[in-house]
Write a structure and sequence with these properties.
Blueprint: H1 9-27, E1 42-50, E2 63-64, H2 65-70, E3 77-86, E4 141-143, E5 150-152, E6 168-170, H3 172-177, H4 180-188, H5 191-216, H6 227-254, H7 259-266, E7 276-278, H8 290-298, H9 311-326, H10 330-336, H11 340-367, H12 373-392
Antiparallel strand pairs: 1-2, 1-3, 4-5, 6-7
EC number: 2.3.2.27
Keywords: Isopeptide bond, Metal-binding, Phosphoprotein, Transferase, Ubl conjugation, Ubl conjugation pathway, Zinc, Zinc-finger
Enzyme class: transferase
Length: 398
Amino acid sequence: MCEEQTVSLVDVLEEDEELEEEASAVLAGSDSDLCSYPQGYVKRQALYACNTCTPKGGEAAGVCLACSYKCHEGHDLYELYTKRDFRCDCGNRKFSGLQCKLYHEKDDVNSQNKYNHNFFGVYCTCRRPYPDPDDQVEDEMIQCVVCEDWLHGRHLGCVVPDCVELQEMICESCMNKNPFLWIYAAHLAVSSTEVLMEEKKEESAADVPKKEKKVDDVVEPICKRSREEAESSCRQEELQVMHHKRDQSEAEEAKPSCKLKELQAMQLKKDQSGAVFWPSMWRSKLCSCSTCQVQLSAAGLSFLLDELDTVLAYENKGKTNEQSQQGHDPLMSALDNLNRVQQLEIIHGYNDMKTELKDFLQTFAAEGKVVTSDDIRQFFEQQSRKRRRVDAGPFYCS
C-alpha cells in the first residue's frame, strides 16, 4: 500500500511566494485598476483575449489587465502573457453590445495592433490550445520575440539549450522572413563562431605592430650627413608618419561603418533551419547605422535595437514596482507609530512565531502526517499560553 503524499503548510507558503513573484513579474508592470487605452500603444503589457465576446470566426481583439477584471469578469479568457505596442480593444467595434466600463471614448479600431492565432486560444505551428487536454507530452512553450507566438520546444526544429529563460528565441519562420538575421545568427547565436571572431581579432591586432615596424625601420639616413641632420630628418619623418596615421584614423572614424556588412564579409556559414536562440545582450551587437535602421523599420523590427523591449526587462520592472509597493505595507506603517522598544518586541515575537510554526509543520511533513485544523488550533493555543506566561513576569517565593 503506497502512502498518500502529504504537503505541509510551509510547502504551500513557499509555493505561494513563488507564484506571487511570477505574477508580480508579469502583472505588476500593468495597472489592474485603470484601462491602458489612454496610454496609447503601450510598449509592453499583460493582455487577454475574451472567447465569450470575440469567439473564433470573429475579429481578433485583446483587452488589458484592468478590463479583464472589470469588464470581462466571469468570461472565458485566454491569457496572452505580454504583447508589445498594443492598445486595449475593450468596448470597440469588435465587441458588439459591450461597452468598456473603465474608459468610454475609444476609437472603433486600433489599426496599429498586431494579432495572431493566440487571440483565439491556439498556439505553435501545431495550432493547439494550451494547456492541451489531448497532449500527454510534457513540453514547455517558448515565445518568439518577433511574432510573439508561443511554440512547443519539440516543434522548434532545433535543440533547446539549457538556461533558456535567460535567452531570447526567434522562430524559423521569422528568420526566413528576414534573411539578414541569419548573418547575425552565424556570429552571435553560436558560441564556436564567437571564439573564431575573437581569434581573428587577436590575429588582426598582432599584425599591427609588424606593419608599423616596416615604417619605423626607415630611420637611417640614406646618404652621409651629420648626426644632427640625420636626427632632424628622422624626427621630420616620424612626424609625417604620425600625421598620416592621425589623418587615416580620423577618416575611418568619419566614415560610417556597417556591422552587418562586416559580418557578411567574414562569410561564416550557419545551417539556416530551425529556431535560433540568442544570448543575453545580443541586441546591443546589432548594427544601428542609418541603412540598417531603415531595413529594420521596413521589416517592422526596429524594436530589436531596444534592449528595454525584452520580456526580461518588463518582468524586472514588475518586480521592482512590487518591491516598492511592499514598502508601503500597512503592518509596517503601524510599526512606525510605535516606539523603538515596542517595534523590536513585535518583530522578535513575529520571527519567533514564524520559526516555531515552521518547525511545528516540518514534524508533520517528516512523519508523513496531514495537518488538520485541530493541529493548527492547538499550536496557536500553545503560543497563547506561552505568551501569557511571559507577560505575567517572573514569580518570586517569599
